[in-house]
Amino acid sequence: MKKSILLLLLALVAYGISSINSKDSADEKDIQNNVSTSAKGSKSPKVNSTISYELPAPLTNRQEQIVEHTGYTLSYNKDHNTPNWSAWMLTKEKTEGTVERCRKFWADPNISQLYRVDYFDYKGSGYDRGHMCPAGDMKWSEAAMHDCFYMSNMCPQEHALNNGSWKKLEEACRQWATNEDTIYIICGPVYKGTKHERIGINHVIDVPEGFFKAVLSLRKGNEKAIGFYYDNSDQRQSMQHAAMSVDDLEELTGIDFFHQLDDETENRVESSFSLKEWNAN
Fold first, then answer.
1. Is 259 marked active-site?
2. CA angle 89, 90, 94 (to 5 degrees)
3. How big, in percent rounded to 5, are the helix, strand and coil portions of the chain?
4. Are the C-beta atoms of 237 and 205 separated by less than 8 Å?
5. Which of 80, 131, 146, 196 is catalytic?
6. Could you tell me which residues are beta bridge partners of residue 183?
7. How far apart are the C-alpha atoms of 162 and 237, rounded to whole Å?
8. Is 233 helix (H, G, I), strand (E, B) or coil?
9. Cα separation of 116 and 107, whole Å?
10. Residue-wise pLDDT tens digits, 21-79
């Protein structure tokens, strides 16, 4: 009897050791799989739909008020009475929208009345009310179309630029959204120095010396980014001449773009650019 009990105990101990070894092997296999997956992920980052990749890092070198509108977000600067930037995600599906262009500009109720630019502040200035987030990107929603006509989304822009080189860049971005399926865009004014031309009737508005735009695609296996800078002038400016790396654009603007990417991807896509690659499809 005692011998039988002893044999039973030995059998149970042996079974326990075998189970532990099996579990350790399984855990080790899981760890190896996780390492392998992470290694692959470093080459093609997994896009997280909950992250707004278009939004830059918070600004510390200038005043800003973040305002969220349908279809885009903007950072408003009460010192200039223009946006620091407007940012949005543009998809292939959104470019196929059919909403008609809005015919009226609106004062933004989210901005304090003291800094709330209205339509008449541009009257007689000689400058267009230049959209940062363009109406052509907001055709997918009546609410988005309405909101992109808030004056908080406008900058004083030379008509020749607004209706010429800048418009061509906006059209190119819509084509890139079709090619890439999804792109992330941020653009805004560039102020150089401390003194600027000013316009305005009820509110003083600083006229920027130029405009920037940064574009990001996270299409798997072909992640890329590109920056642009255009002078606010009536001179014709080619897209090739305006193009630059996002790193160079960050140095020019003092804004940290696409900071929510992992470091490896951010460094890779921001350090170089190829306009030819964007226009390849």
1. no
2. 130
3. 40, 20, 40
4. no
5. 131
6. 90, 217
7. 12
8. coil
9. 6
10. 444 444 433 333 333 333 334 456 777 877 999 999 999 999 999 999 999 999 999 99
